[in-house]
Amino acid sequence: MKKKAWFWTFPALCFLTIFFIAPLFFIFIESFQAEKTWGFDNYINVFSQPVFTTALLRTLKISTIVTFLAALLAYPAASAIVKSKRRNLLMSLIILPLMTNAVARTYAWLVIMGRHGLINSVLLSLGDTRNPVQILYTEPAVIIGLLQLFLPFMVLSLVSALENMPADVEEAAYSLGANKLQTFWRVVFPLSREGLVFGGTLVFTGSTTAYVTPAMLGGTKLLMLSTLLQQKSLVLLQWSSATVIAVIMVIMVIFINQVFKGRRLEETS
Amino acid sequence: MRTLGFSMLMLVLVLCLLLGPYIILLAASFGEKALLQFPPQGFTLSWYSKLFGMRMFIDALKTSLLIGIASTLTGLVFGVPAAYATARFSSKWKGLVKLIFLSPAIVPGLVIGYSLLRFFVLIGGFPILIGLYLGHVALVFPYTIRVVLASLKNLDPSIDEAAISLGAAPWKVLFRVVLPNIRSGIIAAFILAFITSFNNVPVSMFLTGPGVTMLPVQMLSYVEYYYDPTIAALSTLLILLTVVIVQIVEKTLGLSQYF
Amino acid sequence: MKKIISVVLLIIMLGILVLAQGETNAAVPSKPDKLVVSWWGFNLDLLDKNIAEPFEQKYGIKVEWDVGDNVARLARLVVRKDKPVVDVVGFTPTFAYRAIQEGVLQPYRPERIPNLAYIYDWAQDPLSGHYVVAYTVQCMGIYYRTDKIEPPVTSWKDFWRPELSGYLTWPEMNTTYGPALLLMSSKVWGESDRDLDVGWQKLSDIIERAPTLYRRSSEAIMLLQQEEVWLAPMPSFAWGSVEALGLPLARVFPEEGVIGEMSVVGVVNGTPNIYWAEEFINFLLSHEVQMAEALDLVDSPVNTFVDLPADIAAKLVYGEELIDSLVFFDPTYLGENIDEWVEKWDKLKL
Questions:
Q1: How far apart are CA A21 and CA C11, in angstroms?
Q2: Can you give the CATH number for the domain in which B83 is found?
């Protein structure tokens, strides 16, 4: 039986090794090459820039918050979708915003969050504030923008994870006396972990690498790793430095990914 | 159903968050002025009709669709069996294999694109369209494999075991027993994979070449210079297009149970 | 006797004519089935109409466009250095500088581009070495809200007016005009455009006082439109959109000068079609193409013999007064230093 398993995964593994891992490996090796010497020069160079540390911490913080919020919102939404009769319609609605152009989408946010935007108009007319509230060019603005962008990934991932959950499992838990929260934590959550880990990784990665949304909603003064990556690669064409930043981003994501999975001590893969 | 009330509320909230900005864009796409504006002034469909005559978008759309569908289908053909095998069989390498299948989603696109360009030029002899296709197949594997995997996890293995003990060959088990039960997972996988491929900018921008253009790259270069409702209109049309494609996929998968 | 001599002379003359024909024919290489041009892609339809189709009609060679932004196209050229698939390439001067450093451009032969004589002299060899030629000119002026800002804006120095803090924006250093603005700031506040210490200090002020800096002109337009800012430097191709906003915004050509910029074109190193690449460049500079692109409001002409009607001229970088006030900063100098300046700029944001 094991042989069959390998056989079925082989084509995919092969493909990825040739057309993904190998090419990346080449430039990964190159990131250790600076001028004529081999070593960690490029890495030290990047790490020692205060710009880098600021960007790293900010990116980590924002990505974590977005992922957490996404999970919080997506779980109930996904379970509502799974139980709904109009499941496919709802899934289509969820993915709609993904097909809008990044710049166009940001324009809409400006209309909503700007000094004279919709939110401020509402606040002013309610007499809440005298002066417009500064929403744009703050970290919360970036968080909202990224949340809107990546929530569909979390929702879809959880939908497919929740759909095969035995329908009566929740009922059984209730009848045994568990309340809502306990049912979720002890029953639903473990069963959909796979979907959460995958969705969470997508949201986290997306938030880490997104460029247009943070730049326009946060203003370019809020430096993020993606800004630096864009700069090194697309402006300065310093591919070694760009690879260094990419490596750090990947390590960050893998770490978070493992943290999510790590808690699953009692379960077997 | 106490839970359902709360869930529904969150669902509505999520939909508002997701669709709200888009409603603004939709409204702006009908404005008469050559300017993105909300609320829009006047009403016209001219930005939509203008799109149909813009070769630079139409050609790019065709290529993006071609690559998107081809890479997603390839990703599913390779990926669904791989997901099934990974879900059903245990091995100490499982964690690593799952990580490899996830990796294209965690490496920044710019770096993937650049490395693929270097790779294809190094090997030489690849027509540009093929290189683009191969790059996109790699990009969609995380979606075609791991979303299906999540769906499979909760499918009771005793169902397939029963089928096997009744004498069904593994392929048949996959098609007749497993697939119909994870239909929703496969649709979700298709959607995510297709969208990832279609919307991709960093990989596409490095792998295009003479005579080959991809739509999101063209759109981004358009907004560098023009600030009119064309792009809002294009976004709306793309949404309609995606909905149509998803419907087609659903119908196809729905029909597959009859084979 | 006379008759024989005349006939012999005639035959000799004919012979020379035939040989001469043969000479020029040998100098024109055979036509490739297509010429690949690496270019910006935001206007493909007009590019086909004004350039590709007329070129094909005139020379019988199809033009294939390899589109993208500067960066992607440079990266593709560099990676394919040993076996280029592109013949001609267009860049902004900073990227052209990089392209020259990477060895992907080769000098053109000036005698192959007779139209050089018809363009502005500063457009003829902006990066020296005959590597590139400017085929269009752009510039950066200022837009401000006349109803919000009193007294009127007349100078680059007005960006530093204390009351405007929080209501202005500025381009990022890693944009086309970013480096030029550093030099302009040095020039207006310091001794000269190389007085960079002064310039950096002034830029650090700007970073503090601007709610955000912009990367694309469409962002600057959005900011003006949403009334987030009242004052912004604005590149010429965006002027039309700003005017269309319908807000009380006035355009200013500052007294210290308008920043001039060019887009340049050159021959790719290693292409087998050098002759036709040069022909294409010459074609770009021709009256016919420069006029067509100007009338469609795509590009402002560098060909001095292009006469434009007043309404078109007002929307382009055209006319003696404006052209004379253009201040060009040395693209080689900018290209040499941009890497360092981008890093320094980022540090200022901390």
A1: 73
A2: 1.10.3720.10
Report d(CA B121, CA A219) in Å as an integer.
37
* Position A42 in a domain: no
Question: What does the alpha-carbon distance between residue A143 and residue A70 come to, in Å, rounded to a whole number?
Answer: 10
Residue to mutate among B47, B147, B155, with most A CBs inside 10 A, is B147
CA of C18, closest CA in chain A: separation in Å? 53
Mean pLDDT of the region A226-247:
84
User: CA-CA distances (angstroms) from residue A55 to A201, B33, B109, C4?
Assistant: 20, 39, 19, 92
Q: Same CATH topology for C32-136+261-320 and C138-258+331-348? A: yes
Q: Specify the pLDDT at position A264.
A: 44
B21 inside domain: no
What integer pLDDT is reported at residue A267 of this predicted model? Answer: 41
Q: Is A104 on the interface with C (CB under 8 A)?
A: no
Contact B18 A97 (CB under 8 A): yes
Residue C12 pLDDT more than 90?
no
Number of domains in chain B: 1
Query: How much is the ipTM here?
Result: 0.85
Q: Domain holding A173: CATH number?
A: 1.10.3720.10
Q: Does the residue A202 lie in any domain?
A: yes
d(CA C166, CA C211) in angstroms, rounded, equals 6
Put simply, whether B121 touches C (Cβ < 8 Å) is yes
**Assigned CATH topology for domain C32-136+261-320:** D-Maltodextrin-Binding Protein; domain 2 (3.40.190)
Tell me: the pLDDT tens digits for C284-293?
Answer: 999 999 999 9
All partners of chain C with 3 or more CB pairs under 8 angstroms? A, B
With the CA atoms of C329, C333, C335 and C337 taken in that order, what torsion angle do they form, in degrees rounded to the nearest 10?
Answer: -120
| Digit-coded pLDDT (tens) for B35-73 | 778 888 889 999 999 999 898 899 999 999 999 999 999
- From the list A19, A99, A147, the residue facing B134 with the nearest CB is A19
Name the band, by pLDDT with cuts 50, 70 and 90, for residue A18: very high
Cβ pair A156:B11 closer than 8 A: no
User: The domain containing residue B242 runs over which residues?
Assistant: 45-256
Chain A adjacent subunits, 3+ CB pairs under 8 A: B, C
Q: How far is C128 from chain B (nearest CA, A)?
A: 28
Question: Does B224 map to a domain?
Answer: yes
Q: Is A24 part of any domain? A: no
Choice between A171 and B11, residue whose per-residue pLDDT is larger: B11
Which has the higher per-residue pLDDT, A128 or A81? A81
Residue B3: the pLDDT is: 56
Cβ atoms of residues A74 and A162 within 8 Å: no
Pairwise CA distance, residues A223 & C349, whole Å = 8
Average pLDDT, chain C: 91
The CATH class, in words, for C138-258+331-348 is alpha beta
